[in-house]
Amino acid sequence: MKTETLERLYDAITAGRISRDNATYGYVDSDGLIRNPDLALYELEDKGYVRLHLDGGIEQLPKGEAWRNRPRKPGPAAAQFSDQPGAAA
Fold first, then answer.
1. What is the pTM of this model?
2. How far is it, in rounded angstroms, from Cα 59 to Cα 63?
3. How would you classify residue 62: left for phi > 0, otherwise alpha for psi between -120 and 50, otherwise beta?
């Protein structure tokens, strides 16, 4: 699954939008922004970022917090001088 999808789901968990539907035992997003979060939740659990409890609770683990707050790679560096190769003239 894409990293962006997992990050959006983790943010939804942090915001308290993900809960379990007692009728289907599937997880739902109260805002409807993330459809069918079940598979992504299981992937987050497999990676050790969250723990899913039998009562439907979702516990965020320290490893997940570290993953979500990790330093990102900077984007492509802009050329500083116009005479560098690849710089717009």
1. 0.74
2. 11
3. alpha
